[in-house]
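hiii, so i know i said id send this last week but things got crazy w the move. better late than never?? heres the sequnce for the chain we talked about at the cafe, plus the structure i predicted for it. fair warning i was half asleep when i ran it
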Amino acid sequence: MTQLEKYYNKFKEDHRLTTRHGQVEFRVSMKYILDFAGQFSRSNNEIKIADIGAGTGRYSVALSRKGFDVTAVELVEHNLKILEGRHEKVKCWPGDARNLSFLDDESFDITILFGPMYHLHTKEDRLKALTEAKRITKKNGFIFAAYVMNDYAIISYCFKKKKIKESLASLTQDFHTITSEEKNLYCYTRLEDMTELNELAGLKRIKTIAPDGAADYMRRELNSLDEEEFELFVKYQLAVCERPDLLGASSHTVDILQKL
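okay and structure toks below
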């Protein structure tokens, strides 16, 4: 069993996305997926969405219930069994984001990569995942690629948890994390890394958003808000999620790309 499988056999991704900080990420991400799906002049059941690295199906199920034709691909068997056990109208496949040979070229209007880029450590593997997403996406279709951000890791782990001294060997002089599949579960990214991958894959960036922004830094504070205050925070994040000066320090970013 791989480190990734061991982690997701215990970690409840569905629960994370129902916590308050997770709700911010989910609600902002869903708004943008639905906004871009609305650009197609077709009914929802005619729009095909691929959710690659679908986990236990938080996005797959939500999108399917809105009437979209959803195909989910998941590497971790434990997660896939949970998704299949929900008996939703989601087509489920076991598979790796780097090799989607079981899916036809140009089959999907929207392809979602919410997960794979978190755990792929080499440029080659990340490019494989992005290139496969491009292959299965229709011309003029959209790809949503999510990343865990480098400076979030530096601030929240190295400094907030006082791990900076023991982490120095895994950091460059300008505090870019150095990770490997053998030693680390997550790979942390900067905006310039994302730009380089897009250029190599031949994808056009439409926009980049911070779906959670500061939410992951202030979990306790979000939990202390009443419902009206929390809704105002979601409204705030929706208002600022495209601001370039706030992107890099978000917990996650989502690159919204187009296949031309």
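btw The longest strand covers residues 137-149. thought thatd interest u
miss u guys!!
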